[in-house]
Amino acid sequence: MEDMHQHGGDGGAPAVLPVLLILSILLAAAGCYLLAAHRARRRNPARGRHGWRSVSFVGGLCLLATALRPPLSSAAHSDFRAHMAQHMLIGMYAPMALVLAAPVTLMLRTLPAARARTLSALLHSAPARVLAHPAVALVLSTGSLGVLYFTPLYDATMGHPLGHRLMQAHFLASGCLFAHAIAGPDPAPARPGVRTRLVYLGVAIAAHALIAQAMYGGFFVDVHAPVEQVRQGAEIMYYGGDIAELLLAGALVATWRPERRAGTVPRPGRPGATATAGH
Asked: Which tens digits make up the pLDDT trace of 157-179?
């Protein structure tokens, strides 16, 4: 009962206000995206805007809302299984849906020219190039899980509301970064080719599986929770992570555009086709 009162589980005002704030932010984000998509279609009807991207963005926000509001958000404080389900939604499924909606491309199409150039310059900056590399995104997303669950960090963050929020923010930011680095449709200068990104995704899948198996077996794990909860949480991580990463692999393969070899005869009727490789 003391834990429920501390985290607002009694249904009082302290529990309601954060939920209302989160839902308001998510609704505002959905409204901004849909308004920008409408403006993009109106500004250039010929190019249009794939409706499924709007569905993807709103779907990602709905997944965040599910993770950040009761009953899941309340249970995550006292049940490791609920925490892991919340982690999957915030750190893997919602980021993939948000990234596949190509929000940066939408911003570049709808912002005033001067601001669009500023954003483009930011995307081409050295820090952005480093963050957009799959190796960096892999360390920040999958690599940080070992630090979280194999050290006292998990219990320390769960013991403080601010620490818990910062952990959730890290899950979301690192998840978006990894999804963007692997299969994001938005511009990413100096991003490796599809084959290289598939290798990084394979490393992420293997690392995710090893961490989950170590947790299930009780090796190195430093989580103060009942053993059965930790094992079931590890199963959620193992199978839920596999599904999310397979979906991400499918999104990546869908972007594959193999280069034609030199001397290949172009198909008739393709305007601008040449026999030069890579064009």
From this structure: 998 888 999 999 999 999 999 99
